[in-house]
Design a protein that fits this description.
Elements lengths: L1 H9 L9 E4 L4 H9 L4 E4 L1 H13 L4 H16 L3 H14 L7 H15 L7 H15 L4 H12 L11
Parallel strand pairs: 1-2
Helix pairs in contact: 3-4, 4-5
Amino acid sequence: MARVAAAAHAAGCQQARRQAFGAAGSANTWKLPRRFFGSFTAILDFIHAWSYVFAAAQAGRKFAAAWRCDEQWLGWVGHGQVGKVIAALEERPQERGLPVPSSLMESAVQQVKQRMTGTEQLWSEAGGAALLQWCGDHLSDGEILEAFWQRRQDNATGHRRYRKVG
């Protein structure tokens, strides 16, 4: 962002009659532009925001129903009634008995990432992939875990393969 700010300054953007910058809807995408272009008018990247609204409207719906929902939600967004979209999104999982927040999944992903990439965690790509597969299989329903152990036993040689370094 500092390079963009330097290029904008070199191009004379600070002296322009009308000054604006655009960014996506997420709060953290606005921090740097506000820091470097604080006096500029902030403009939401509408297509970016629309794509998120449309994706949310499509989740678990057939296209025709999703399209009707998307039209309604975009109307709300266009009139500054984002709270209505948020309320509609919060109602959907509760109707189906599903948890609302994604924080549980995000927390699990961070825990796995920390365990895979933390200090003294030396995984080969194949070993890391196998461990992640095992964890996923262990937590899921079905016979995938049994098939994993059977494949492992079938391919066992008693020798560990080391890559040549250098």
